[in-house]
Amino acid sequence: MDIFGYTSSTYVPPTQSYTTPLTSFKKSSAVPGVSLHSAIHSIAQTNFQDDLISLLSYVRTKKIPIIPISVPDVRCVLGHGLSFLVNGAEMPETYIDHRSGVEFPKGMIVAMKRSVVRDDMTDIIGHRMRVLFTEILTMCHPPLLAHPNIVKLLGICLEIEGPGISKIAIPVLVVECAELGNLAEVLETARKEERPFGFEEKLALYADVAHGLEVLHACDIVHGDVKCENVLVFEKDCQSKEPNWPKSRYICKLTDFGISTHTAGNITLGGSRPWQAPECTRDAYFTLEGAKRTDIYSFGMLLWRIMLDGDPFKSLGEFEGNTARDRREKRNDAIALLKQGDRLVKHACDSLAMSEKFSNQQLDILHDVMGITLTKDPSARELDIGKLIRLLMPNKWYQRRHPVSPQRISIDLNIQLLDIEKDFASFKKISQVAQRRIVVGFQRCTEAPAGQDTDGAAAFQLAICYATGFGVPVESDKCLKWLVIAANKGSRRAKQALPLVAEAFDIKIGDHVVIPKADLSLSSPSEDQGNTLSLELLETWPSGDKNKIGIGTEGSCAGWTMFRAAEACRYDIIELLLSQGIEPEVSEDGVTPLHFLSTWDENIAEKLGQKLILAGVDVNARAKRGVSVGGTPLM
């Protein structure tokens, strides 16, 4: 979208959805002060993912679709883990992301992954943003994005949380939905319906997980929580093309990378009892190789669980306790004792033999693999996942599934600042609360230490916000002031736009522009900028159309209807139309401007809603579509 009327480079959507590796961007276009060192430094050492504007800048740099849905049609809870709550959801309307070219058809079933709040979080927002960023960073890494055994990230949306003026916008991940559920659920269903998987099909399921973990480790990524609940099961479109490979109706994909790590040392791991390695204690630190070996242990536990149809602990007997949680804790304690005494390999192999489900040859194969995955000694665990697959399937053809060559996640990424002008089609539909948080993010960028926002990119984005009413009221003076600041910092786009905007406001700009000390917005630019900003601009500008409409003037509502302004949350346009005596209309499907009240900023909604009622809006109209289907505006 061309906000200020000058010609900018045209965006051409890619032919495929965000599958190309991230290219480097010039430093002057990067988010101020942002430098991510994910491959060799701890995530905690960077402030990148603590900030919404930085995360959204990364998302758009990677061409990840931002879906303008704040309240999805949640159908059910699909899962709840340490990092995320996952809901199934249905797309309420068709949406096409203009930058990636990805289409989300109406009725499409997706999974919504919300970062969870835990009691042990000291910085709730910062921690959740870090978890979200880790998940996005991992899922969008090109070797993983192209891999058939890694769950695909489809996009993100912004969800509003909190009461009243304390509302915040939190990103929610939109990923492909496995309607069959996770591997634990699939195994349990098959067991209860007495139609368990055969040995060959179990091997095929396990091999899928193996290939997913193999590509993670090849990229020096540690999953940290390998278990059946973090493996999603999909119907397979076609049979494997790999020669002599076990046939299966399903394909498994690894998910939940919120606690994964891409660091080289001093790694702390989460994980879940009873699936984690015995050395995974609360205060333990690992090297990269040591952390990978904990994944291998969990991988051995996964094999045991799959082979016993999801219930490997039946051989331990029943545990007493007042609640299911008490019984589960006692069971986990019993397993921990087996691990610490290095007796789990024998116990697991004995339980397989007692099940009477396997031939002697199959038991020998399983014993060999468990012996080099479930051993207490980390150094004795086999890190070569390909070797584990070959041991399990000695007569099958093995080939790595690496559509894109594995590589470590980039050490240093310069991320292009979120551009509202380019992304206006996506962002204009998100809630006012989310828009406001984005504006706050731009404001913080302008307040960054000297030497950061060097090209005035954040100030230019604030000018766009005030020109379009994005997150703030349309205010021509503040738009012009932020344009001046951006131009003074060297923004080429601001210098191009400034004469056009000044002409629209009928303001003459000379060699010097005096900026009053009036409040510029959320807070004024830093005092050390002074009150006079020198600009290398011409004394006069070429004459333009004298009838050109100025932003925020009475003529700026030309082409708008009350209904359209209400849907777009353009409060300034509604005020102008009301002042001109325009009556609020009712659409053919029974929707009035007042039906959009719930989507407006609550600080504005009550007062403006009363004005609409006084102007004669039909409070009894029943909507046939939208957020208030079947209801009147005040229901």
From TrEMBL:
Q: Which InterPro entries match?
A: Ankyrin_rpt-contain_sf, Kinase-like_dom_sf, Prot_kinase_dom, Sel1-like, Ser-Thr/Tyr_kinase_cat_dom, Ser/Thr_kinase_AS, Ser/Thr_Kinases-Pseudokinases, TPR-like_helical_dom_sf
Gene3D superfamilies (UniProt xref): Ankyrin repeat-containing domain, Tetratricopeptide repeat domain, Transferase(Phosphotransferase) domain 1
Query: Residues in domain Protein kinase?
Result: 72-398
GO MF assignments: ATP binding; protein kinase activity
Top-level taxon: Eukaryota
Q: Which UniProt keywords apply?
A: ATP-binding, Nucleotide-binding
GO BP terms: namely:
necroptotic signaling pathway
Q: Give the protein's recorded name.
A: Protein kinase domain-containing protein
Q: Which organism is it from?
A: Elaphomyces granulatus
Which taxonomic lineage does the organism of this UniProt entry have?
Eukaryota, Fungi, Dikarya, Ascomycota, Pezizomycotina
